[in-house]
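dumping this here so i dont lose it
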């Protein structure tokens, strides 16, 4: 009888412990489920002009694009629990690149502002694919100086401004979590500023003291572009592909193709690029830095190798938002 009572008591203790364990597990699952989770950082997978078809639906980044001479703030966030997300893409730049700014101290300022609205979770029932679409619309503007040696002396240097409405429709497809394919089609105005030749003009002036007949010379330097400047309408088509090897999760490879159709000339300009990126740990779409090699225009590569080929460095700091389920 004593053994029976002991076995009964042990069974009750075991049952109580099992219930306690189940309760703790349930509380743990609930806490984990309610815990705020950071979204991934925004993309810095882009070409030497800061353009890309890739735009992530969550998270943000501060980024520096050396070739473009731009500093960019880009972020997006879901609207409540819906698949709709909103974003903003803002950058300030110098049209002549960061290296020119450091070496000569002169800048031709520019700015880009884009608002973004998109729809996420296009393949929510799929275990392989994830996709989203985004509509970007905004403004791009810049100011610079042009030199015309054939004009009258007082009109040789002209201050020029360039403004454009910019829009694009972007589709992104994520495959198996480590591959991202994106394509975009849009409209914008463009110019050939980057194709013109850089010059530095020096104006000298002599001041003479009538009392002592002493002369004093001073000079001012002006940075400008020289050549046949043109502005035109353009339909850009961007194709981007990013992937990470399974055995190297912190290394990413980025490839892209650029086509731009000139409405006035009825011609395509084509270029491509490839790069390697260092990624954040456990976050294959958040880049820390990358080196990208680009051919801007296939038709001009043989004519002028120096202008046709670009090596670009991008650096970024990613940040995330939080969302409760």
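and the seq i came up w/
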């Amino acid at each position: 009888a004593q053994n029976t009572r002991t076995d009964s008591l042990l069974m009750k203790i075991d049952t109580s412990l099992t219930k306690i364990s189940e309760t703790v597990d349930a509380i743990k699952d609930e806490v984990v489920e309610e815990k705020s989770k950071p979204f991934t950082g925004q993309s810095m997978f882009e070409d030497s002009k800061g353009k890309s078809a890739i735009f992530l639906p969550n998270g943000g980044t501060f980024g520096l694009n050396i070739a473009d001479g731009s500093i960019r703030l880009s972020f997006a966030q879901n609207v409540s629990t819906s698949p709709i997300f909103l974003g903003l893409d803002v950058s300030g730049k110098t049209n002549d690149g960061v290296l020119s700014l450091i070496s000569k101290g002169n800048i031709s300022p520019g700015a880009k502002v884009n608002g973004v609205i998109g729809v996420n979770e296009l393949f929510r029932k799929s275990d392989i694919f994830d996709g989203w679409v985004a509509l970007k619309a905004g403004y791009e503007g810049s100011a610079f100086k042009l030199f015309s040696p054939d004009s009258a002396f007082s009109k040789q240097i002209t201050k020029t401004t360039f403004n454009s409405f910019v829009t694009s429709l972007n589709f992104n497809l994520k495959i198996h979590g480590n591959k991202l394919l994106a394509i975009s089609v849009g409209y914008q105005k463009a110019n050939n500023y980057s194709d013109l030749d850089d010059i530095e003009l020096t104006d000298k002036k002599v001041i003479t003291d009538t009392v002592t007949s002493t002369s004093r010379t001073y000079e001012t330097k002006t940075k400008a572009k020289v050549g046949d400047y043109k502005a035109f309408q353009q339909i850009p088509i961007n194709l981007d592909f990013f992937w990470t090897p399974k055995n190297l999760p912190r290394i990413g490879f980025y490839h892209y193709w650029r086509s731009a159709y000139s409405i006035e000339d009825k011609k395509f300009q084509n270029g491509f690029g490839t790069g390697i990126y260092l990624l954040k740990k456990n976050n294959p779409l958040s880049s820390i830095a990358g080196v990208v090699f680009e051919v801007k225009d296939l038709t001009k590569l043989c004519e002028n190798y120096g202008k046709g080929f670009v090596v670009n460095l991008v650096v970024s700091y990613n940040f995330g938002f939080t969302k409760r389920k």
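The helical segments are 2-34, 98-104, 298-301, 305-308.
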